[in-house]
């Protein structure tokens, strides 16, 4: 099938599926992932640039939206974000090891499931490198199965978190409008504004083009360069922010300052929201078609236990993190869910949370927790490979 045609077919059917609501729960943009999995199963392949372009644009848009209040919120709650990011990755690792051994799952397959359950592509890269090295050291000539495990766990890793962030407010009985108001006041130090155009100093800045595509694309390019910087880790491994982390931090930093002299570096909120959604859609199309190839065959060969392992690794860290956030850290509901999305490194869940809450402010806690979780998932994958 023509790739261009496939992109628009997957997106159209995926959004139609995502629009179906059952008792207030819907897949939203994640419906695109499920349709992409089906297309991938039947042999549709997407160039890597589709997934990477979508991911880069999505996280850059999120960064530019969250940037103006990110650092203020980060300083106030840095220890909570650090704790949640590390906690989710550590619990996920422990569940992987314990359940993986009980279910007699090969170590490389289990570690791949760990990275898929937490939807971490950088984690998969680290897992693939580490498990390949361990297999070679043991004199085993077979290829690492980490990418297969990732493909099995990834779909529920996406859909499970998307549904959870919608279900959690219902289970706790919170009022989302009240939570939205509290979060805005906490971040901005003032009541939420009425609808309408904000005036003031921003109107006096020079904009080189009206929509803000120039700063968005410049930030994305800068972020991709930032993501290529490699930081050495013990054991001969390395860590980099990659396409998922680099544009996010570039967006946060540029949006925090907002200008160079009188030259505006901001984009229209409507532009950022539209590009955020487009990026997420393209990312899910690329990731879904990639994971769909061989998905059914592996499940038939390896059994349902692999899928169940992925479900456990997705759900247990997330549920425990919410309980600790509510009763120990005393975070509000939207900050909790934003942090959980960041701790699970789940960009689709963040999109679902923004749609559910009706505010971009939830992206601040996502962006604050994400780097800690990303680093821990990468390190956790390497440690499990060495110690399994």
Quickly describe the structure:
The protein has 388 residues and is mostly helical. It has helices at residues 3-18, 31-41, 48-102, 107-117, 121-137, 146-172, 176-188, 213-227, 242-257, 269-292, 295-302, 304-327, 333-343, 347-357, 362-387; strands spanning 21-22, 25-26, 231-232, 238-239, 259-260, 263-264.
Please tell me about this protein's structure.
- The chain is mainly alpha-helical and 388 residues long.
- The protein has one domain.
- The protein is 73% helix and 3% strand.
- The strands form three sheets. It has a two-stranded antiparallel ribbon with strand order 1-2. Strands 3-4 form a two-stranded antiparallel sheet. A two-stranded antiparallel sheet has the order 5-6.
- Strand 3 and strand 4 (238-239) form a beta hairpin.
- Helix 4 (107-117) packs antiparallel against helix 15.
- The protein starts with a helix and ends with a helix.
- Mean pLDDT is 85; it is low at 197-201.
H/E series: HEEHHHHHHHEEHEEHHHHHH
Low-confidence stretches: 197-201
Radius of gyration over all CA atoms, rounded: 20 Å
Return the average pLDDT rounded to an integer: 85
- Helix proportion range: over 70%
* Helical stretch tally: 15
How do the strands and helices of this protein lay out in sequence?
Layout: H1 3-18, E1 21-22, E2 25-26, H2 31-41, H3 48-102, H4 107-117, H5 121-137, H6 146-172, H7 176-188, H8 213-227, E3 231-232, E4 238-239, H9 242-257, E5 259-260, E6 263-264, H10 269-292, H11 295-302, H12 304-327, H13 333-343, H14 347-357, H15 362-387
Antiparallel strand pairs: 1-2, 3-4, 5-6
